Structure formats: C-alpha cells, structure tokens
C-alpha cells in the first residue's frame, strides 16, 4: 500500500534542531576564509561493505564481507577554505582525547592565525573527545583561535 523498503538513516538522538540553528546563525558572522574545519575519517575492513544489492524477486541478496573490523586507520585533518588541508595526523586505530589534544598542540594550532584573521576560527564537531577544559585552555594558551562546538 505505497510502502517500499529503504535503507535506514541513523540520526543522533542527541541532535538538537535549535542548537543547529543557533550554530548556523553564530557562524554566519565570520568570513569563510577565517574558518578551519576539523574532522576525522577512518577506514577498516568494513568500509566498503555493500549495504544495498539486487536480486530476483523473492530471493535474498547475499554478499560475503568481513564481520570483523580488523585493522583500522584514522585521520584527523584541519581544512581551510583557501588553503586546503593545513594540518593532518594519521594513527592506527581510533582517535581518543589525548591524541586529539596532541593534534591540536603539535599540528593544527601552530598553522593557524590569531583571531581575527584568515584561518583563525576552529569548527569542531560535537564528539565527546573534543569536549574538555583542556581543549579550551590549549586554544587559549596559543592565543590564536576562537573555537566553536
């Protein structure tokens, strides 16, 4: 009756439409070249596993794929509009809070400018490893950047 099978899209239950609106409003005051976006990507044995497939009606779609994540590489990078990637760090495994702080201290913050200037505002996603007084103190210690979460 008008229904079809679709892939489920997972949305974070912690997501707040009001906070998203506030963030968009707040960030609109900065020139685009002031912004440096920080994000993590990773690759493991399941990265390219198919989620969709085709089969004859009434038959299942089957594919052999690893169930075990196996070896994982993760990369954290700072991306500036006019300059591209200005800092990056690759680790075996996943990033944790200490590695994130190390990336800020050794790689990203030295490549940024004092606020207000191009490459002076860090945009960091709302992951738990990014939230700490240590992160805010580090940014302040460098005296270079304003941080948005």
TrEMBL record:
It comes from the Eukaryota. GO terms for molecular function: nucleic acid binding. Residues 38-148 form the Tc1-like transposase DDE domain. Gene3D superfamilies: Ribonuclease H-like superfamily/Ribonuclease H. This is Tc1-like transposase DDE domain-containing protein.
């Amino acid at each position: 009756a008008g229904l079809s099978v679709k892939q489920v899209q997972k949305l974070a239950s912690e997501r707040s439409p009001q906070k998203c609106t506030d963030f968009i409003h707040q960030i609109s005051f900065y020139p685009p070249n002031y912004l440096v976006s920080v994000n993590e990507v990773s690759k493991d044995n399941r990265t390219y596993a198919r989620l969709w497939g085709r089969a004859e009606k009434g038959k299942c779609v089957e594919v052999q794929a690893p169930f075990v994540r196996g070896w994982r590489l993760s990369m954290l990078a700072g991306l500036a509009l006019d300059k591209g990637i200005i800092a990056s760090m690759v680790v075996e495994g996943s990033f944790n809070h200490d590695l994130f702080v190390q990336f800020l201290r050794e790689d990203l913050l030295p490549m940024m400018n004092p606020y207000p200037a191009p490459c002076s505002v860090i945009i960091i996603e709302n992951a738990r490893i990014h939230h700490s007084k240590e992160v805010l103190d580090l940014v302040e210690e460098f005296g270079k950047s304003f941080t948005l979460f």
